[in-house]
């Protein structure tokens, strides 16, 4: 989670919503690391989780992340949670809960849908306060800067 | 829908699950066209809709597809439907319904979620039989080839 949080801090320094993610191989090696690049790529699908999972499959030379763990600073949105189903991800560990935008423990609760074909193991709320703080700080600064 | 179906046929000829999509600008011009590339890219998130929306924002030089229409041969899955929310897509027109994998009229019904922040207009079941046929034919051939 420390690596994911460092990636989130890097995103914040680039003016991105600060979310960071890493993917670990079944043996615990870090095989991918990414942060939110929506602004840099002008691509609303360039969330940290999607970028990290793409990099992980490229690193493994496979289409499946079975047995792999994705660690991310924020509860994944419904798009990223659904992508985890397609990637056959083994486990997701996330930091802060996201009652407004989350899709795992909130909203459509993607993995609890009866038609969901693959359910990663889920561990949520890890280092919750620290992971929530970076987002709060980012949006406070944004409001001050943009005079909302 | 003819263009999207042609893209789906191209996907089938490459051994991909045959789904095709196009994006139209608010003035009706086709600004992006894509088909499923999961096998070619070894990327489970490379669905036709995501690729077409990425190409469309690149073509427009913007992050938003407000006022744009995406036409796709199959009901979008929850990942693609959720991506449409992030892309602020104006309208989605889809062909065949997908009771097992769909996320618009089936499963989590992404746009009907109370927390959904943007709801594209939806028109489903357009040229349904023709769009369903290409998928059925593909899976029949696959079963015969792989001796399932």
Automatic annotation (TrEMBL), chains A, B:
Belongs to the cytidine and deoxycytidylate deaminase family. ADAT2 subfamily. Catalyzes the deamination of adenosine to inosine at the wobble position 34 of tRNA(Arg2). Binds 1 zinc ion per subunit. Keywords: Hydrolase, Metal-binding, tRNA processing, Zinc. Its EC number is 3.5.4.33. Its cofactor is Zn(2+). InterPro entries: APOBEC/CMP_deaminase_Zn-bd (IPR016192), CMP_dCMP_dom (IPR002125), Cytidine_deaminase-like (IPR016193), tRNA_aden_deaminase (IPR028883). This is tRNA-specific adenosine deaminase. SUPFAM superfamilies: Cytidine deaminase-like (SSF53927). The keyword tRNA processing applies. It catalyses: adenosine(34) in tRNA + H2O + H(+) = inosine(34) in tRNA + NH4(+). The active site is at residue 49. Zn(2+) binds at residues 47, 77, 80. Homodimer. It holds the Pfam family dCMP_cyt_deam_1.
